[in-house]
Amino acid sequence: MPVKTLDPSELATADVHKILLSAVAPRPIAFASTVDTDGRVNLSPFSFFNVFSANPPILIFSPARRGRDNTTKHTYENVKQHKEVVINIVNHAIVEQMSLTSTEYDRGVNEFEKAGLTAVASDVVQPPRVGEAPVSFECTVEDIIALGMEGGAGNLIISKVVRIHINTQYLNTKGDLDTTKLDLVARMGESWYCRASGEALFEIPKPIFNKGIGVDQLPKHVLKSNVLTGNHLGRLGNIERLPDATSIEKELHSKEIITILQLEDEQKQRHTLHQYAVGFIDKNDIERALSILCCLK
After folding, report:
1. What is the model's pTM?
2. What is the spatial distance between Cα 168 and Cα 173, in angstroms, rounded to a whole number?
3. What is the pLDDT of residues 136-164, one digit of tens each?
4. What is the pLDDT of residues 80-104, one digit of tens each?
5. How far is Cα 175 from Cα 178, in angstroms, rounded to an integer?
6. Coil, strand, or helix at residue 175?
7. Helices in the chain by DSSP H: which ranges?
8. Which residues of 195-232 are buried (b: 16+ CB within 10 A; e: fewer)?
9. What is the distance, to the nearest Å, from the Cα of residue 101 to the centroid of all Cα atoms in its chain?
10. Which of 47, 248, 266, 270 could join 27 in a cystine, given CB atoms 3.0 to 4.6 angstroms apart?
11. Whose CA is closest to 42, among 95, 102, 91, 96?
């Protein structure tokens, strides 16, 4: 398919920014509360954010320089003055209030009050946490790395977690955070967000738990399929071993496979067999699906 190739050095910063934010998504949101040397509170969201280590527990977010005038944000100025931050996690229940805090209020304006959010005193650090957030991380700022001095340049705020606060309504019966209850949101390009709930959530068995055979070991007709998608192939390739002769023989004697193999047109035969296998892949019965696919050479 046609590809549009661009050199970022030949584009305006605003155009690079637009492409990056639309393509590198969804991005989690760091809802960061900070204080300045006078103790004035600031609360702002940043989607250049992620977790980078568990031991030590490190979160990094990046308040970038404004592209239009190369000024820096209050959060960045605050953490340089007072090296503490609380990173609050955003879910759908507070997404509109979070968005409101992205307004560029004057220094000293308390965004907790503007957004109607509850400032709860932290245990270790001075900045308060957001009482409505499902999870909050009290952090000390370990380092600040400027990635440039021009408009659009990021500033990495390397933050070490020293306390974790979890709203218990988002725990499952085992006491772990429940992804289906969290209802998290993430930032997309332009004014778009996405919501991690309902049909947007799906599970994939982690390859790290077993050594998959790989797509290259699947029957050749499978690799040429116009029915099986790349995701289907990836799921099949994650199985630990090819089915044994007994499993394949059992399928060969099933009514469904006998009917498929009686089709005279080989292309229709493969197409029908692949459609039949997809039904089992979608039910996560990968062993059965691969046994069916191995009924053809």
Report:
1. 0.84
2. 11
3. 999 999 999 999 999 999 999 999 999 99
4. 999 999 999 999 999 999 999 998 8
5. 9
6. coil
7. 13-23, 74-81, 95-100, 111-115, 179-182, 220-223, 230-237, 245-252, 255-261, 266-282, 286-293
8. ebbeeeeeeeeeeeeeebbeeeebbebbeebeebeeeb
9. 22
10. 47
11. 102
